[in-house]
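Please predict the structure of the following assembly.
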Amino acid sequence: MPHYPGRIDSKLPNVGTTIFTVMSRLALEHNAINLSQGFPDFDCDQKLRDLLTKAINSGLNQYPPMAGIQILRERIGEKMQNLYGTAYDPEHEITVVPGATYGIFTAVAAFIRPGDEVILFEPTYDCHQPAVETAGGKPVFVPLEAPDYHVDWAKFQAAITPRTKMVIVNTPHNPTGTVMSAEDMRTMESILRGTDIVVVSDEVYEHIVFDGHAHQSATRFPGLAERTLFVSSFGKTYHVTGWKMGYVCAPKELMVEFRKVHQFNAFVSNAPVQYAFADYMLDPGPYLELSHFYQKKRDLFREGIAGSRFRLMPSRGTFFQCVGYEAITDERDTDLAIRLTKERGVASIPVSVFYHVPRYDKVLRFCFAKKDETLLRGVEILCKI
Ligand SMILES: Cc1ncc(COP(=O)(O)O)c(C=O)c1O
C-alpha cells in the first residue's frame, strides 16, 4: 500500500468517521436492534421499484440534462405550488441533485468564501458544519433552547454581523424532532429583510410533521422564499435513502450560481431514478400520507417506552424520538449508546455529537423509521433498562 509522505493540513481536523457509521457498524457486530441511523428497515413501494426497472430496461441510462429531466422538474414545480403556494420555474429555478447532502454542500460552495460567516442552529445536523468549513466559511452557532429546542430569535439577531452570508435552517429538525412554527418563520423573515443573507433551508422531512400541523416551509413566506435555496430528499419521502436523490428550488438569481458549481461537481443526477420518480410523483398519496404513517410509528414507540425510566421529549416531526436518561445513569451519552448496543442489543445516537463542543445533556436519539416488530423488540429492551 502506498503512503503519502508529506504533511497534511486537514480542512476538517476534527472530523472522523460519522457517529452514524460507527453505531450502525457496532449494531451489526453485536446483532443489536438498530434504532440509530435514520433509514427505514422496510422496503419502498413495489411500484417504485418496478418503475425504476422499467426505466433501466427502456434504455434511459445515459446522461440526463444537467438540471434534471424536464418532466421531473415540472412535477416538482407543481408540487411546490400546490403545497406551499410558491411558483418555481422548472427551467431556471429547480435542480435535481444526487441527495440533499449534495444539495447543501453545493449551495454552500456556491456562495461561501473564506471568512464568511454562516449561522447554524445547534444541535446541528452533521453535514452542515463540514460543508461550511470546507468552503473556508466560519460557522456561528445559535443554540436551540432546552427543553423544547426552540429558537431564541434575539440570540439569532445578535449573531448576525456584516460578515454573515448565510443561514442554514433545518425544519423538521434532526436530531431533536422539533419544528419551526409559522411565527418562527415570520420572525426570521423580518430579521433578514433588507440583508443580503441567503438561507439554505434543509427540509428533507417536509412530509413528516405530526399532530395535524402543517409544515412551515421557508418557501411559503415571500420574504424568505426570495433568498432561500430549498432542499428536499426523495430518499426520506419515498423510503429510498440508498438512491441518494433530492432537489433544490431557488429564485433564478441564486440558482444560476448553484448550477455553476453543480455542473462541475456531479454535473447530473442518476437518470433512470429520475424517470421513476417522475411517474411515481403523479400520485400525491405517498407523500400526503407519510405524516400519518410515521405518526403511528412514533406513537407506538412512545407508548411502548412511556413506562420506562427514559424521559420522553417532544417529537413533532422527522422520524426521531429523543429521550432523557438522567434517571438511569450519569454516564456520557456516547458511552451509554455504545454500552446499550453491546450489552443490551439496542443502538441509538448520542445527541452530544450534534454540538461543535459536545454538550452532555443526557439525551439519546432513537429512529422509529422501522417495522413495528423492530420497534416493539426495541421497546421491550428499553423498558428493562
Ligand atoms: C436533516 C437532514 N438533512 C439531510 C439529510 C441527507 O439527505 P440525503 O440522504 O438525501 O442526502 C439527512 C439524512 O439523514 C437529514 O437528516
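The two ends are 46 Å apart (CA to CA). The first helix runs from residue 19 to 29.
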